[in-house]
Amino acid sequence: MARFVAFDVETPNRMNSRMSAIGITVVEDGVITEEFYSLVDPEQPFESFNTLLTGISAESVQDAPSFPELWPRIAPLLESGLLVAHNAVFDLGVLKRCLRDYGIEWRRYTRYVCTVQMGRRVLPQVSHKLNVLCEYYGIPLDHHRAASDSRACAQILLRYLADGADLRQHIRTYSFTK
After folding, report:
1. If you average pLDDT over residues 119-138, what whole number do you get?
2. Regarding the domain delimited by 3-175, which CATH topology (the fold level of the hierarchy) does it fall under?
3. What is the rounded CA–CA span in Å between residue 8 and residue 126?
4. What are phi and psi of 65, to 5 degrees?
5. pLDDT at 21 over 70
């Protein structure tokens, strides 16, 4: 089995161009081997909807690193395996906008797996909302908390694989260009 890097981001507002938190869960040979979590100062205003959803406010992040300050810590993790996210296009899109807006060069493309898209094929009879899948599999979840969401995403992927899903059929490529 390969090395997977499940990640989840929370955002401060509907623009979805900055992170207010990131959770990363690394899986090697079917076992969670590393977890990382950080609040992120988005350097943008928070909207009440996002604060209510995530529990993160401007006060929460006042001593947190900005994305460029955090990037040297998270880049090696994100580069260390196949990226996995639940509704991956959202999380990858936020990452892409952060990189672009801060002028940080990274890779042009990355391979990833989306556990929502994968689930629609391997478990079509169940809703693919993160909280519903966690309830279905008995996975603990503190929803809309990046650390918990990334861990749950990793565990969902492991369940899909244990049930016989062929990961190769679900790998996609995301472009960080344009």
Report:
1. 96
2. Nucleotidyltransferase; domain 5 (3.30.420)
3. 22
4. -70, 150
5. yes
Locate the domains of the chain by residue range.
Answer: 3-175
Task: Report the amino acid identity of residue 39.
Answer: L
Q: Which residues contact 14 (CB under 8 A, 6 or more apart)?
A: 47, 49, 50
pLDDT tens digits along 62-78: 999 999 999 999 999 99
User: Cα dist. 17→21, 90, 152, 163 in Å?
Assistant: 12, 10, 23, 36
Q: Is the pLDDT of residue 44 over 70?
A: yes
Of 8, 2, 3, the closest CA to residue 115 belongs to 8
End-to-end CA distance of the chain: 33
Q: What does the pLDDT read at residue 178? A: 73
Helix (H) or strand (E) holding 22: strand 21-28
Helix/strand/coil (H/E/C) assignment for every residue in 121-150: HHCCCCCCCHHHHHHHHCCCCCCCCHHHHH
Q: What angle do CA 79, 98, 86 make, to 5 degrees?
A: 60
